[in-house]
Structure formats: structure tokens, C-alpha cells
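Exercise 7b. C-alpha cells:
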């Protein structure tokens, strides 16, 4: 600071940024010194020199031991009593659990910051943010380690909650009835390290997979619609759950989330997804009685795919064909659509196969494609919310170039990220401290 003021004397100018940063740094140093003072524990009194050990025997006080911890105001030192059990040779620091610094050299305040930046952006960006925003020097690896550890803790707590949910052991969520509640589901590939795809086939035949499917689900209410009758949604009211896991596991996860959002109080329940079979299996199992809707835009893509196969390199014919068939789809005239598809004659066996597949797809999902009926009820007919979610929740964080995840790491960051985006990180942190 003296240097800065001398500089001002010379030039007559004050560099406020340099000054504020220097003042912050000085305050941190003073703060770290104060914290270090506060964290010097006294030697235990004579009657506190023996404490229970987890082995059933007793641990004796040995000495005060100190360790460095990184705090919100920079590096500090803590000195606290160390106890050793003669019986099982396990040492313990009771003060560490009180201070929430067990087996870590990072304070809870800094861990929370690392979790926040780690769920938001690549770990090295998190490192940079820690430096600029908090004047704390950490490694990208430290951000990663902390964010993953906290994400794993969140995921583990959720698993316990899911167990209670499937045993129908959850407290009933009391509140006003909800007019309409939606569930949407989708899957998106997450790039993973080689060992995570061992023995799995990729999308291209004969090629190994490079990704694993991350499943994402969201829940949101709809309270009103616009003057033309189109549904409106409050974007802040959407919550997400996601993980790389089996459909069975994911179904339970989504069930818990729907439960939390008041599924039992919803007057109208809607599940929207693309044609993927696992989505409708989950809907059947966990959300019976919900109106099922196949995303209209996804269904149109099926028709487009077929149009391109029927009229390769002939856009005019493709469009003419679409005009008729998309209209049938939009009108929910699925029976007529499948009849039309099945009446297409071709000598090309590959094309015949494709036509049959698509006709089956529309036939199978006919009840989920009653679009005029859904529109009359002012319902969403597209899965835009979950597709946007796939980009913001998974894509922008886990699918950046050069990223390769372990399933464990990806699931930890996903749990943390959903917790943060759902506005529940504060609650988690409180609950964690309470234990
Ligand atoms: Zn012991």
C-alpha cells in the first residue's frame, strides 16, 4: 500500500483497482492472522485428557498439533488437541469435526466456494474465479476434488431419500392443489473416459461408444396460458434431476422429485418425452394416470427422416410429401397417417424396413399424439423444457471440448449442479451442518 501511495505522489493519479486489491489482500492477511489466533485451542484440562475411542477403549491426550487450512481470508493455522488410542492406535482430533475440517485442509467457507464454481464451469475456470473473486489461490484439482466430494455427498443423501420414497415413507407434502404439473425426460450423451465404455457398442455399428447416456428429468407447473390459448411457464419453477444410470434407478429419482413438487396434489398430470421406450416405461410405472404426450417436434422429425429417404436430394418432393403427412400428424389423425405410410410401395427392402419401423412408431404412440385434444386443454405438446435443460444442465458443463468424465465424477457434478440450479444448495449446506 505504501508503494501505491508513493506512486500517486509521483504521478498524481490513483489506480483504484490496484488500491482496492491491495487493501483486500491486506485485510485478508490481517483476517488470517486473527483466525489463526482464534484457532489456537487450549490444552485440555486434567479431566478431559481421556476421551472414548470408536474401538470401545479410550484415547489419551497427547499434544497440541497444528495444521494449515485455507480459509476465506487465506492460509491460516489451527492448533488443536490430539488424542491417541493405545489399544487400536487410532488418532483423533475432536476439534476438527467441530470445525468441519476433518480430513481436509480447506475450510467450510472455501469448500462452499469451490463447489459453487466447480458446478458452474470447467475446474480451471473455477480456479481463476477463486483468484479473481475471492483472492484465493487454489489448484484446478482442488476445485475438482471439493466439488466432487460435495456432489457425492448430495447424491448419497438423495439415495437415502429415494429409498424412503420407494418404501412410501415420505412425509406428505401439504399445500394448495396445483392445476397442471409436468414431467419431461430425455437422454443425452456424456463423453466419458475409455474404461467407462468397455464392452459397450457405439451408435455407429462396429464402433466402440465414446459416451454414456446421461438421463435428465424435469418437473414444472403450469398455471396459465396466453390470449391465444398457448401454455405459459414460469422458468424459475423448473427443477431438474439427472444422472448416468439405468432407467430403473432414474425412474425412482424422478419419482422422488415429482413427489417433492406436489405430484399428489396436481389436478392434471402430464408426462412429455420423445419416443424412447424407457421414458414410457417410467411413466407407466411411476406416474400412472398422467396424460402422456410425445413431443410433437420430435414426431415431425421422424416424418422428415422418412421424407428424405423417400425422395433423396429432391427437396421439392420432400416438402410436398411433408405438407400432407405433417398435417395428419398435427391433426392427431394417426390412424390415417399409419395407413398412408403402410400403403407406400417400394422395391427397396431397406426403405420398406424404414417405412415399417416408422409406421410402427406412430401406431405405438397414437394415443400420445392426440395433439388437437391436448391443445384444447392448453397443454404443452413439445419437450422444449427438457431439451433446453439438456443443454444448460448437462451440455454446457459436461460436454465441453476435451472433457472426458468418469461416471462417478459426472454423477457427482450433476448432483451438485442440479442442487444448485434447483435453488437447494443453501438448504443442503444447512442440513449438512446440522449433522
Ligand atoms: Zn481405539
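Sequence design result:
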Amino acid at each position: 500500500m505504501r508503494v501505491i501511495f508513493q506512486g500517486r505522489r509521483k504521478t498524481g493519479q490513483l489506480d483504484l483497482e490496484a488500491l482496492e486489491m491491495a487493501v483486500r489482500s491486506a485485510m485478508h492477511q490481517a483476517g488470517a492472522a486473527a483466525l489463526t489466533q482464534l484457532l489456537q485451542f487450549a490444552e485440555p484440562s486434567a479431566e478431559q485428557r481421556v476421551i472414548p475411542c470408536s474401538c470401545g477403549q479410550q484415547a489419551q491426550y497427547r499434544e497440541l498439533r497444528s495444521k494449515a487450512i485455507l480459509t476465506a481470508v487465506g492460509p491460516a493455522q489451527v492448533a488443536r488437541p490430539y488424542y491417541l488410542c493405545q489399544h487400536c492406535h487410532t488418532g483423533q482430533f475432536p476439534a476438527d469435526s467441530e470445525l468441519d475440517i476433518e480430513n481436509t485442509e480447506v475450510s467450510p467457507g472455501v469448500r462452499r466456494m469451490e463447489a459453487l464454481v466447480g458446478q458452474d464451469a470447467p475446474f480451471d475456470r473455477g480456479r481463476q474465479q477463486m483468484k479473481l473473486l475471492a483472492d484465493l489461490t487454489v489448484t484446478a484439482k482442488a476445485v475438482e476434488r471439493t466439488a466432487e466430494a460435495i456432489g457425492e455427498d448430495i447424491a448419497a443423501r438423495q439415495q437415502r431419500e429415494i429409498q424412503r420414497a420407494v418404501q412410501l415413507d415420505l412425509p406428505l407434502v401439504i399445500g394448495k392443489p396445483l392445476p397442471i404439473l409436468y414431467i419431461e425426460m430425455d437422454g443425452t450423451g456424456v463423453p466419458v473416459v475409455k474404461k467407462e465404455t468397455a464392452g459397450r457398442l457405439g451408435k455407429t455399428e462396429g464402433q466402440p461408444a465414446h459416451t454414456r447416456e446421461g438421463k435428465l428429468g424435469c418437473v414444472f407447473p403450469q398455471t396459465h396460458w396466453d390470449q391465444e390459448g398457448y401454455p405459459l411457464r414460469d422458468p424459475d419453477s423448473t427443477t431438474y434431476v439427472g444422472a448416468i444410470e439405468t432407467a430403473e434407478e432414474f425412474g425412482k429419482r424422478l419419482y422422488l422429485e415429482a413427489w417433492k413438487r406436489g405430484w399428489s396434489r396436481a389436478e392434471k398430470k402430464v408426462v412429455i418425452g420423445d419416443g424412447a421406450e424407457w421414458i414410457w416405461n417410467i411413466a407407466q410405472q411411476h406416474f400412472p394416470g398422467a396424460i402422456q404426450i410425445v413431443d410433437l417436434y420430435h414426431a415431425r422429425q421422424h416424418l422428415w427422416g422418412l421424407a428424405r429417404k423417400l425422395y433423396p436430394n429432391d427437396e421439392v418432393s420432400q416438402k410436398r410429401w411433408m405438407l400432407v403427412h405433417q398435417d395428419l400428424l398435427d391433426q392427431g389423425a394417426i390412424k390415417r397417417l399409419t395407413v398412408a405410410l403402410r400403403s407406400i410401395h417400394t422395391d427397396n427392402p431397406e426403405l420398406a424396413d424404414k417405412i415399417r419401423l416408422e409406421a410402427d412408431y406412430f401406431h405405438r404412440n397414437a394415443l400420445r399424439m392426440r395433439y388437437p385434444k391436448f391443445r384444447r386443454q392448453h397443454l404443452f405438446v413439445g419437450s422444449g423444457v427438457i431439451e433446453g435443460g439438456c443443454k444448460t444442465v448437462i451440455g454446457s458443463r459436461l460436454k465441453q471440448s476435451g472433457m472426458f468424465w468418469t461416471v462417478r465424477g459426472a454423477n457427482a457434478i450433476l448432483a451438485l449442479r442440479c442442487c444448485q440450479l434447483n435453488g437447494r444448495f443453501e438448504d443442503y449446506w444447512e442440513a449438512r451442518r446440522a449433522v
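Instructor comment: The radius of gyration is 29 Å. DSSP finds 16 helices and eleven strands in the chain.
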